[in-house]
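Quick one, probably user error.
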C-alpha cells in the first residue's frame, strides 16, 4: 500500500513563508522595503490568512519588522547587529570546529570534502547564475561542521542565527575574488580538521568569521546602516 500513498501538498502558509523568504534572500525584496499583506496575497493568488501567518513567522525569524502601526518592512541591518551576531558565531563555530576535529569520522570528513570539491567546481565555472548555489554550498560547509561537533546544545544555539546569517551571506558581494577568499578559508579549516589539529582548526574558523564580519561591515556601512 505504501506505493499508493497520496503526498500531502505544502500548505499555503508554508509556500507563502518560503516564497517571501526567498524573495528577501534573492534581493527581490530589499532591506528597508515596505511590504503589504494584501499585495502579496494577490500576487500569490491566495487568501490573506496564510500570508499573515507567514509574515508573523518571518518577524520571529528577524527577517521582517512590524512597527506599532502595523507597518511591515524588510529587516535592514546595522553594524551593531552584525557585530553581535558574528561575535556569537565566532564563539560557537570555532568551538564546533574544535569538536569536529576531535569527533568526526573519516566518513564525515568525506562529506565535508565533497562539499569543497563541488564548491571549487562552481567557482571554476563562475557566473552570476551560480551565486545562490555557492552561497548554499558555503552554508552547507558550516552546517556540516556544526553537525559533526555532536553537541546538540551548540547546534541549537547556532540554529537561532541561521536565517540572519544566510541573509548576511546574500547581501555579501560574491564576485570571483570574494568566492576564492571564502573558499581558501574553508580549505584551511578542513586541512586542520583532517590533521586533527583542534587549536588551528578553531583559530582558523574564528579568523574566517572575523574576515566575513569586516567585509560585511564595509558593505553595510555603504548601503544599509540606519
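Nope, works fine. Designed sequence:
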Amino acid at each position: 500500500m505504501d506505493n499508493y500513498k497520496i503526498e500531502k501538498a505544502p500548505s499555503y502558509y508554508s509556500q507563502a513563508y518560503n516564497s517571501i523568504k526567498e524573495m528577501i534572500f534573492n534581493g527581490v525584496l530589499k532591506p528597508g522595503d515596505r511590504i503589504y499583506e494584501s499585495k502579496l496575497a494577490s500576487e500569490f493568488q491566495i487568501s490573506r490568512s496564510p500570508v499573515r501567518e507567514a509574515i508573523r513567522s518571518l518577524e520571529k525569524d528577524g527577517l521582517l519588522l512590524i512597527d506599532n502601526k502595523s507597518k511591515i518592512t524588510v529587516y535592514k541591518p546595522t553594524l551593531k547587529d552584525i557585530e553581535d551576531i558574528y561575535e556569537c558565531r565566532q564563539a560557537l563555530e570555532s568551538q564546533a570546529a574544535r569538536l569536529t576535529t576531535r569527533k568526526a569520522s573519516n566518513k564525515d570528513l568525506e562529506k565535508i570534502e565533497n562539499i569543497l570539491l563541488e564548491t571549487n567546481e562552481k567557482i571554476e565555472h563562475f557566473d552570476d547564475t551560480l551565486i545562490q548555489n555557492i552561497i548554499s554550498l558555503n552554508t552547507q560547509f558550516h552546517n556540516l561542521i556544526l553537525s559533526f561537533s555532536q553537541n546538540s546544545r551548540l547546534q541549537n544555539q547556532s540554529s537561532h542565527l541561521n536565517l540572519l546569517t544566510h541573509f548576511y551571506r546574500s547581501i555579501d558581494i560574491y564576485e570571483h575574488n570574494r568566492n576564492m577568499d571564502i573558499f581558501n578559508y574553508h580549505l584551511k579549516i578542513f586541512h586542520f580538521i583532517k590533521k586533527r589539529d583542534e587549536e588551528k582548526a578553531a583559530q582558523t574558523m574564528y579568523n574566517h568569521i572575523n574576515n566575513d564580519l569586516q567585509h560585511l561591515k564595509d558593505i553595510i556601512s555603504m548601503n544599509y546602516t540606519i
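The two ends are 58 Å apart (CA to CA).
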